[in-house]
Amino acid sequence: MAGAWRNPLYLWDVEGAEEEIPATPYASPQRVWDEARESKTPMLPVGRLRYYYKWPGHGGALWSRLRYWPTRRRVLNIRGEYNPKTLRREKTIVDKRPIWWALGLLAFMLAPLIMPGGYQNTLLAAGATFSIYAAINLCWMLIIGTAGIYSLASYAVVGAAAFGVSWMSIHLGLPWWALPFVGAGLGLVFGVIIAIPAIRLDGFYYALLTIGLNELCRVYTLQSKQFGSSTGGLYGADSYVPDSWDPFDQQLLSYYACFGLLLLALALYRIIDGRRLGRILKMAPEKREAFAEATGVDYRRARVWVFVVSSVGLGFIGGFYASHYRGVSFSIFGFDTVLLGLAMLVIGGIGRAEGAVVGTAIVIFLDKVMISTGPLRLVLIGLIMLAVVLLLKGGLFGIKAQFRAWRDKKKSERRSIRSEKGGEMLPEEAAETKDKDVLYWRRYDKMQRDFLKTLVSEEVIEEHRKQPLGQHSEPLERLLLYFRRQPLGDKYAITVVQPFKAYRIVAMSGQRGVAPRIVEDKIYASQNEAYHGVFLRRVQDLLES
User: Fold this and answer.
1) Over the stretch 151-205, which tens digit does the pLDDT of each residue have?
2) What's the domain range around 469?
3) C-alpha dihedral over 268, 327, 238, 255, to 10 degrees?
4) Distances (CA, A) of 14 to 11, 110, 466, 471, 486
5) What pTM was estimated for this model as a whole?
6) Of 369, 134, 75, nearest in space to 259 by CA
7) Where are the bilayer-spanning segments (predicted)?
8) How would you class 505 by CB atoms within 10 Å of its CB: exposed for 0-12, middle for 13-18, buried for 19 or more?
9) What is the pLDDT of residues 86-98, one digit of tens each?
10) Half-sphere exposure (CA, 13 Å, Cβ side) for 388?
């Protein structure tokens, strides 16, 4: 009979000896050895595609790096390295963001040439609005991201400057070219006033104060006759757009003028964030102010300086806003405007200039271009903001760092699987073990246990229950031999409670003079039942190991 074990005692007419006993299918120990040594992770091709050119060689030319004047930021962060695969010296671009900035700004500058005729007016107006709001958000990003001040009064500064210069232009005849500079002066005054509470307040309380200030400006202008309470705003200011031009040329001029304002805001952001003020505040991020103060960094003064300079920039934008729209409405102080601006920062990512610009582009596209969808566009903006907050850590531009962290985690998991030799010993334990033979013995014991687990079956357990002692089949004999070779410590045994009537299972201590401990309170009526109980416990420990 195939798959059967022939009992040699049957030929000697031993009482109770069966001729053949069904045996479990043969499992080769070599298979267990091969499975333990092979990699459990699918191996993929090593390397990645190169999208950027690798310059050969490096030397003195490597250190002649262009920098953004007057900051210390390099135009392209180029690093010299040695490639062990090609055995060559190479230069590689570490930070590729300037390339994307150049391509993005160039595409925005050339966009009016490729706009479809049917949507040209809408896209030009949306592009001008995008540039203004992106400039505001860049200055706001300096306050929230660089300075770490949770101010919600950025649109209050812009609105106050816009209302102030509009009134001066209407009643005092202020020309359009002076409006941004006068607005910068008004922004300086408001910035100093708002920055004073920032010395004492911080976080949530300062945000409440600034949102209250924003609402105070809205209520004051809304009820003031001088600022157009009856007309919904203050209009009639001088504008840089000539009235004699045709509408398309007017929109094109507005588009490029707002684009120039965006470039000025980017330059201000680079000057503040890339020079001394920005570097000082990078030493004192949230919850590390004590460290910065202990090293002699006056981070409070640096924060106030950044706030005041950003307020000057916001006032300049407010003056330009008034000359662009020939006035200003009360909606600049509205809570919905503040929330939309906050959504732009959150979607793009707080603390990054590209986050402010791209987040503004997404929100302006949904709010101004897709205006035909009605209130649904606001719901869509809210859903995008909610998804970014729940799923991403640093906005859209934090996806790369978040993906790299997740990828490195998975690499570590796969690497640990590939380097597994059986999980027999921790790395630090293996390093401290003097006798390295213990490592190989544990590795062999682990593979042996994996092989013996395949031999455990209901037939083997039933065979041991019928005949705990005597001649057994090969699978059962292998299991019993392994159990008998185990160390004496915690090894199961039986003790006699009452001769020939009661037996109990105990565990040996492995130490001379220390009595065995009782494993369970169950009493076995016969010796064979106690032997089978010990066998079941050993099998259970084997399967759980």
Assistant:
1) 888 888 898 899 889 989 988 888 989 999 999 999 999 888 887 776 666 677 7
2) 4-35+442-544
3) 50
4) 8, 101, 16, 11, 31
5) 0.66
6) 134
7) 98-117, 123-145, 152-170, 176-196, 203-221, 253-272, 304-322, 378-399
8) buried
9) 777 777 777 788 8
10) 24
